[in-house]
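Supplementary Text 2. Reproducibility record for the structural model of the 476-residue chain.

All settings were left at their defaults, and a single model was retained for analysis rather than an ensemble. We include the record here because the model underlies the residue-level annotations in Supplementary Table 4.
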Amino acid sequence: MLHKNLIAGEWVGTSASLNVNPSNTNEVVGEFASATAEETKAAIAAAKAAFPSWSRSPILERHAILKRTSEELMVRKDELGSLLAREEGKTLPEAIGETVRAAQVFEFFAGEALRLSGEALPSTRPGVGIEITREPVGVVGIITPWNFPIAIPAWKVAPALCYGNTVVFKPADLVPGSAWSLVDILHRAGLPAGVLNLVMGRGSVVGQTMLDSPDINAITFTGSVGTGKRVALASVEHNRKFQLEMGGKNPFVVLDDADLAVAVEAAANSSFFSTGQRCTASSRLIVTEGIHDAFVSALTERLKTFVVDDAMKPGTHIGPVVDESQLKQDIDYISLGKAEGARLAFGGDRLERETPGFFLQPALFTEANNQMRICREEIFGPVAAVIRVKDYDEALAVANDTNFGLSSGIATTSLKHATHFKRNSEAGMVMVNLPTAGVDFHVPFGGRKGSSYGPREQGRYAAEFYTSVKIAYTSA
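Retained model, structure tokens:
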């Protein structure tokens, strides 16, 4: 079956690409249409034509559509989680959890549709009233990555629709299945034609056409730093709003006073779960001298217990890397780390399993320093480096010595150090005795420096991007 693009309420497309299971490259997950530049332009035109009506649609209609979407996602969480695990390589429990997260996001924004609000203020001039309201920005282009193929589309599409925008949605070409399923659910939930348009395919064709279009009023992007810069430049040229979530080189600090078991579990989760393919993963483990050796020993023992195998198998802790290109990048960085003088304390080997796939043993480096490329560049795989420091002050300085600033964490039993770290960590999100990856759906998400640009995503803060403020003055 060819899964087609959705344009102006119709499923269209002929040319196709195959989606392969990274746990078993002999298995084709599905066949998906690849949009042409002309089809992408048609999707943009459809969204533009649908905007006047949808932007003034009753809030109860928006609520009902988003609510029905949430409900179907929950009912089908096992089925959709299985699809996600097969196309991205995330373990089945993680994939089901991600599908549940998407459902929760849609449920939250279904509620937000009924809570649209503004302000009424008195003027400094007698007899004049002031109203401050929020209005949708127009046609929103959505470009999402492969590592969270249903959750990230959910937390972009749901607020866009909630606030009355129309959408042109391009998912990552590695993982079209989850995106197609989400759009199919929304389409059947009652969205009018043209409100949501799905254009799958290559970034060089679909993404570039979106960037070049003067009819897209805002673009929200999650992906690489390089592509994010291209989105920014193109958006400035068209004077459009843009929102960027890009890379991370997140630190996890372990102090001498930390609970060792808590520190090890948080570090293992942060660095290696989801095969390390999370922008919030901590690939720099910054450990003070007094606990360093015990931490490295305990973390190494913990890594020995991880099962790397088919994402669908019960008992698998870490699934495959998403594809051959990403696997090569991971292995190249492991070779680079050894060449730079870091010690490979555990793992780093490509693994063979029952089926052909992109399996990589988690890699842990020690004797690293913060000037090494493995400690400065985002690897986006199950690779972490331990950096030894003498005390908290040095740990904080090393943690902040990065071009990124998405997430950071600290393991400590000291209220003093925890409080200071929360205030002085140069990251958008700070975790205390918790993994750096793992956030709630109802609160804002985003970072600083080279990690993020523009208003925060998720929660009520999403309104900052998906709406514009209007001020109206009225004389009595």
